[in-house]
Automatic annotation (TrEMBL):
Residues 33-82 form the Cupin type-1 domain. The lineage of its organism: Eukaryota, Viridiplantae, Streptophyta, Embryophyta, Tracheophyta. This is Putative germin-like protein 2-2. It comes from Vitis vinifera (Grape).
Amino acid sequence: MYLVSDSSRSASRRIRLDRVVPDSADILNPDLNVGTTNAVAIASLSSQNPGVITIANAVFGSKPAISADVLRKAFQVDKNVVEYLQSQF
């Protein structure tokens, strides 16, 4: 699991089975299943004022960068496209 804050800082951690992860409104969570079985995610959004996160900056401009392989799989594009997009931030 990658956590990207509104300041475009990222971190990663592995989530165990049956783990619940509450998030604040100012964090973007792109996830990657590194296991060999299917994963299930249930997301719920609820806030009167969730704030603003520029998705492109958070995803392609995070420090340290989100793995190009993770982004390639998520967006189903060539690695060169991901590297080009990351170079724009």
